[in-house]
Design goal:
2 copies of one chain form a homodimer. Chain A is built from 8 helices and 12 strands. Chain A has 295 residues and is an alpha+beta fold. Chain A has a single domain, classed as ECO RV Endonuclease, Chain A. In chain A, the strands form 3 sheets. In chain A, strands 1, 2, 3, 7, 8, 9 and 12 form a 7-stranded mixed β-sheet that branches. A 3-stranded antiparallel β-sheet of chain A has the order 4-11-10. At the A-B interface, helix 1, helix 3, helix 4, helix 5 and strand 2 of A face helix 1, helix 3, helix 4, helix 5 and strand 2 of B. Chain A binds a DNA duplex (17 and 17 nucleotides) through loops.
Chain lengths: 295, 295
DNA sequence: ATCGCCTAATAGGCGAT
DNA sequence: ATCGCCTAATAGGCGAT
């Protein structure tokens, strides 16, 4: 199985990769379309997103005896880890709502984002000449009021690269990238291809859309307790071919990726980087979109 | 938020808990219905489940440079960690397919299973007199050919308990259970309530259905490589009220839960247990159902 | 057959400078 | 503002007895 279809996949891959390097505006059009679609679906269902997110606080009597434990360096103790609330009531909900407009297939992969699936739609045909499918990679990146910075932190399995695939018997690999900060820098080893070719020949460029729910801690402002949703930020990170080939965003904006949150004990191949919202906005304003929750 | 609605929730909870203790057959009917529904959905879409699961092997050229690393004690090196393949192409796919028959809401909770959501259906009204909703908890428990034992391993956030909730200002808690083996025994601290009451008064008993995909390793039998799907086992573990109150399965079958996979360094409250398939089958044959994949 | 030894990958709060 | 220190929770392969 590992070695079946390699010739076909390699041939289609090489053609498709060259095509998107020659026609980056088509990849960008797919990214813009899906970024805006994501924002629209959330806005159109915002009450439901907020209601299901906030239910977690009201359900306190059912989990308060078994809260997720504090973690990290010197937790202050007034915050409840809220990761799973966003993953379900934002991430999985979005996937479910997308299902009513697109054809979804849960293609198996041994690693990658929380939510990732093949999305098929005739809509894509007006945006590019090659395919009616994309592989949508999506992760939820929750933060509280003390950590709502202008970035997200990405691991290697959440970043696509230049996708070198030389011969059918070899495997695809990505060249290293740099995370360049003002005081420090390190390498980043992206682990995701810029596009997948399925057994049936489907061409599926990878689209990376991150959902960043920001919650409040009511205890900071009142005597009430709870961690209600404050806003949802929708972040679209460019495909690896756009980052490295054409238009080669990483060369124009060398600090688009900057140092991440890992300590020195982390293996170099696994180190995360931060992605700058300011520079993403310089690329396109639609790459950082905020949805405020009415209070 | 943590303290709003507590009086209403406590009152409804107390009533519903007493009702299901008096009428355990209604909880069991919900479990049986959803176990069989799960099996039916998988069987009716088996080709798609198998195809998307197995695509992971064919996509080898795209991930082989970045495989998940071997882990655990003395890995032999011929196996690729395959956890995520099952979670997406079995677990998330099942959720998506359920969505076409039921109303789903992704209710926020700070902890719990991989897939969990409120399921609403008029179908439930013929099975019990109290509610048209359940909270479905589902985890994928993948194993390969060298680990396909007659059990699954559950963590505390995957087990519901007796659900004691004394007064509105206190929190619900569960009494400890025992995991009793032939040579050893330990305590289990279930962390999930047997039922949730939402802000709007919805009564949602917790149903636990586990999906256990079993994959082959072709390299064990041939010169080929790949980890294709061999079968899917659908396991329905009783709700905490059935385990501890009426019929009190844990007293009739004290080894239903037996020692898990954790070592001695694990905090006692977090220790996992194994659940015996033999004893589950003694309760009801539909609690362990196998779906074989044609080859 | 029993049971527990053992480690990769994920995530984000928050301190230190 | 920058960046990295720091830990909970999850999972299942496979060895030891």
């Amino acid at each position: 199985m590992f070695n079946e279809h390699r010739e076909m996949m390699h041939e289609v891959y090489t053609h498709a990769r060259n095509y998107f390097i020659q026609n980056p505006q088509e990849l960008i059009a797919l990214e813009e379309y899906l970024a805006n679609k994501t924002v629209n679906i959330i806005r159109q269902n915002l009450e439901e997103f907020v209601s299901d997110y906030n239910e977690a606080s009201f359900l306190n009597p059912f989990w308060a005896s078994y809260p997720p434990e504090d973690r990290g360096r010197k937790p202050r103790g007034d915050q409840v880890p809220w990761i799973e609330v966003g993953e379900h009531s934002i991430g999985h909900k979005l996937t479910r709502l997308m299902n009513s407009e697109y054809t979804i297939r849960e293609i198996g992969l041994p690693s990658g984002s929380d939510d990732r699936f093949l999305l098929k739609s005739n809509d894509f045909e007006s945006l590019n000449k090659l395919t009616n499918s994309v592989m949508l990679f999506s992760d939820v990146k929750s933060v509280g009021p003390r950590d709502d910075a202008e970035h997200i932190v990405l691991s290697p399995y959440q970043i696509s690269g230049d996708g070198i695939w030389n011969t059918p018997s070899e495997n695809m690999y990505n060249n290293k990238m740099q995370a360049i900060g003002k005081k420090s820098a390190h390498e980043v080893w992206p682990a995701i291809p810029p596009l997948y070719i399925l057994q049936n020949g489907t061409i599926a460029p990878v689209i990376h859309i991150y959902l960043k729910p920001v919650y409040n801690m009511l205890s900071l402002e009142s005597s009430k307790h709870g961690q209600p949703l404050k806003k949802i930020r929708v972040i679209t990170v460019p495909n690896g071919l756009l980052l490295t080939q054409n238009p080669n965003y990483l060369s124009t904006y060398p600090s688009l990726f900057y140092p991440g949150k890992d300590d020195k004990s982390k293996a170099p191949r696994k180190v995360r980087c931060r992605v700058s919202f300011d520079l993403l906005r310089s690329l396109h304003t639609w790459r950082v979109q905020d949805i405020e929750v009415e209070i």
